[in-house]
Amino acid sequence: MVELWVQDESRVGQQGTKTRVWCKKETRSRAVKQGQFTYAYIFGAACLEKDLAVAIIVPYVGTTIMEKHLVEISKHVSQGKHAVILIDIASWHIVKKLSVPKNISLLPQPPYSPELNSCEQIWQYLIDHYLANRCFDGYEDIAFSCVEAWNSLVSIPGKIKSLCSRSWMTC
To answer: Domain-by-domain residue ranges, the chain?
Structure first.
């Protein structure tokens, strides 16, 4: 039996995202924008069948971080099943020295096709609902905010499935 997972990472930080804000009619809205360059990365993965998502929050990206993320995903693959994870072709995803757990296979998507990876909707939801228009004091504040945002998202029943489901993504 196979479980289909989607995986991606997103950068969150002081050079954050501005989004629309509400303001009184005939007034100009204000949104914050920091000038510092401190970031955290969310490595996230979702299994639509199980309405489950797992993540790690890290200060940088690379092969060792990807390996840690795959180990975390591996822990959540159902007993007796094998996970196929849809990934983009970032260098740390496809490097030959990447150690992949035995219950996981990686399925690279075509280059320049982020629309095929429905994990992108998770990032957009986190930005829209939790992480945009904010100032952060430093890495710890960013990481804490990412953890809070992720935990809030995954605590909503059915949200992962509704954000990430695609008609062609069935096993």
So the answer is: 2-13+36-164
Distances from the Cα of 108 to the Cαs of 8, 36, 39, 99, 100, in angstroms?
Answer: 11, 34, 26, 16, 14
Please state which CATH class domain 2-13+36-164 belongs to.
alpha beta
| 117-129 pLDDT, tens digit each | 889 999 999 988 9
CA distances from 83 to 8, 45, 155, 160, 168 (A): 15, 11, 23, 17, 17
**What 3-state class would DSSP assign to 118?**
coil
Of the candidates 32, 48, 3, which has an alpha carbon nearest to the alpha carbon of residue 167?
Answer: 48
- Residue 134's CB: how many other CB atoms inside 10 A? 16
Residue 139 makes CB contacts below 8 A (sequence gap 6+) with 38, 39, 40, 59
- Interval 50-83: pLDDT, tens: 999 999 999 999 999 999 999 999 999 999 999 9
